[in-house]
Amino acid sequence: MTDPIADYLTRLRNAISAKHRVVEIPASNLKKEITKILFDKGYILNYKFIEEGPQGTIKVALKYDAVNKVNAIKSLKRVSTPGLRKYTGYKDMPRVINGLGIAIISTSKGVMTDKEASELKIGGEVLCYVY
Fold first, then answer.
1. Least confidently predicted of 55-59, 92-96, 105-109
2. What is the torsional sign of CA 81, 3, 78, 37?
3. How far is the C-alpha of 120 from the C-alpha of 5, rounded, in Å?
4. What is the pLDDT of residue 40?
5. Using CA atoms, how far apart are residues 101 and 74, in angstroms rounded to an integer?
6. Distance CA 2, CA 9 (A)
7. Longest dimension (CA), the chain
8. What is the chain's mean pLDDT, rounded?
């Protein structure tokens, strides 16, 4: 697999379109950090890290609206790819839907949202957009 983050986002996207409640994803430290951010910002209902086997898995419970059965995540878009890395400084931080969505940034201080990186005045690699 050349791009594990794109695989992670695709598995979430496919589970959302198929209206699944839970999706299992092979784990890595970067995927765990992205999952924690999605949970903290309210895009997923819950998550669980299962440490079985050499790699482990992440179980993600997707969040749906009770009445309309609409998912909390409208779009997941991979920005930086292995073939074309996208970096940004804190002054040029991308805004996703005028601040309604989040951009997940990999910085020297760890993985965080665009707003947190701007507050700390650090830039990094733009991993994905979520809204």
1. 92-96
2. negative
3. 24
4. 96
5. 10
6. 14
7. 42
8. 94
Neighbours of 83 (CB within 10 A): 7
CA atoms within 13 A on the CB side of 95: 6
- Residue 117 token pair: 């990186």
Residue 102: DSSP 8-state: E
Q: What is the pLDDT of residues 79-91, one digit of tens each?
A: 999 999 999 999 9
Tokens at 42, concatenated: 């309210």
Assign residue 69 a region: left if phi > 0, alpha if psi is -120 to 50, beta otherwise?
left
The predicted structure's pLDDT at residue 123? 96
Q: Supply 63's token pair.
A: 């969040």
Question: What is the pLDDT confidence band of residue 114, given thresholds at 50, 70 and 90?
Answer: very high
Q: What amino acid is encoded at 79 in this protein?
A: V
Model-wide pTM > 0.90? yes
Q: Could you give phi then psi for residue 69, rounded to 5 degrees?
A: 60, 35
Q: What type of residue sits at position 73?
A: I
Asked if residues 128 and 103 have their Cβ atoms less than 8 Å apart, the reply is yes
